[in-house]
Fold:
Amino acid sequence: MGRGKPLESPVQSCLDSMGISLLSEWDVLAFVYRHRASLASSDHIARLIGYESTVVRAALERLESENLIERSRPSKGVRFYRILASTDPGRQRCLQQIVSLSETRAGRLLLATRLKPNGSNRDEKNNRIS
Amino acid sequence: MSKDGLIKTGIEGLDDILLGGIPRTNVVLLQGVTGSGKTLMGLELIYKGIVEYNEPGIIVVFETSPNKLIRDAAGFGWNLDELQDQKKLQIVFTTPQVFDQELRTADSLLLETANEMGAQRIFVDGIGLLNRDPGGTNPEGGGYRELLQQLIESLNRENLTAILSLELGGAPGSMATVEMTDFLADTVIQLGRERKGRRIQRSLEVLKSRGQDYDSGEHTMQIRGGKGLQIFRRVQAPSRASSKQPTSSTMRSVIGVEAVDTLIGGGIFDGSTTMVVGISGVGKTVLGTQILREGALKQKTRGLLISLDEHPAQIIRNAQTLGLNLEEQVADGTIQILFESPQELDVDAHYARIIKLIEEHDIKRMVIDGMTSYSTAIGEIAVYRDFVHAIVAYSKQRLMTSFFNYENPEFLGVSSYMPDFPLSSIVDNLILMSLVEINNSLHRCISVVKSRGSKHSFDTREFVIGQGGISLVPLERNLVPPLPLQGYSSLLSRAPTRFSGAKRINGAAAVQDQE
Structure:
């Protein structure tokens, strides 16, 4: 754990800068990132990543409000979901770092410790971090 | 797009087989078993369309992760990320259900995107996944067929050339899916992956293509690391010469090798084909080397030596020991040497490389050393025969003078020129190089047993291999003790008979006083 400690602070700061506090938000962001341009409904994404539809819908909204993803207009419940290229190089770098981190088991475990499980109350989480 | 309404695939060799490309807006079906290269071909069709013909494209995937597609493409040097940033490519991950729904929707997001980016090609990987009833248990039926028709309709409406991949497998009802898709598609390309011995051979066959002619039959497909796909036309496919060419000439050229020119009557016709038959070690390779070198030095003709047995360095070294310096000719390109290992010889690819070399270097003289290795390497007699016929026909079409060395397995005398595959009837000239046992030593002999259109000698002459290559032993100073060759009969049989008191009458051996 001692060797992991120096990483924790930058990771937390990256997650904070991106406005991600829930594990489900990260999982949805990672899905959209991996698939570049997904033509799907929130229900489809939920089935593919194993979450409740309501959780995924909330995550998608949060990610869009944080300007991390873009959604096209809906067409019969389906939208294009794409990663939104950030104009902020620091934020872009953060996204790359977290993606790289999540490619290892140790990194995923670290993220799991820094993010609240799905369905948790956002305020509680914020309280915990502060 | 070309003027003839064809779109180029950009895949090396495929446009030749399709006689220029695929008619625009044709629905192209790529079908094959797992690992046959369907996804790679679809990917390359899109990539080449963008970078070589400025035709933006869309790739729709259901099963493959776009990231993996991007990674795999990078292995061929194709930067898909860059093309996506430039809005020339869009990789779309979706599900068959969403795709199905999209095709039925008037305000389809996918087609809207295609329109916005000016896409002209679309590749849908795994069209079979759209069939929700592969077992055909739905009594209503028609669902998949209807969906395909909708797909084709919507893509045609957008002026998109659609490339669809379909997995061929043993799933129940898959044949019905294949037949239905084959029927609706305009162009059907079947990719094969077959085990040949312990190696894998990939193939490509155009099963149909509406609105165009194409080269039928099974062609060879190879995946080249760092480059992509390459298709090699099957060797026996009829050549498609752009203009009529003469296949024979009345021009006669000296070979430059005394042993051959003397016996064959001063030279052979340009564009003729010659088979040189003899056992291993008799001097066929030396003769071939000499023919090419003399051609390059004295006739100023460019030559090609093809070998499945010896590396170029070894050929050059061996020639050097006889004072035949090939290094200069190889260095200045007047002689080309093509070596390929017989272990994994792909005959279509090999043939294509020969043709490329001939055309690039304007080869006029060719020596294949030797045919027996092809027989072993190719294995299938029908494919071997196709290869030989193709190379002979091509050689004649270009009026090249070609020599084919054939290693006859018989040590002393021959009972058949070419026991494994009789080719002697398709060549113009036949030269026999033999070992003859006289007293207790072996002697090398050469005979011309056939030369179409030429008055050639039927004498069997002794030759020696020394500095400068092959040279005939002068008749007057024949070294064979105690009688010259004319003193023997049945030299080509396994037991020559010796006579005494032989003398020459009008240049022919006359036999007297049999012992």
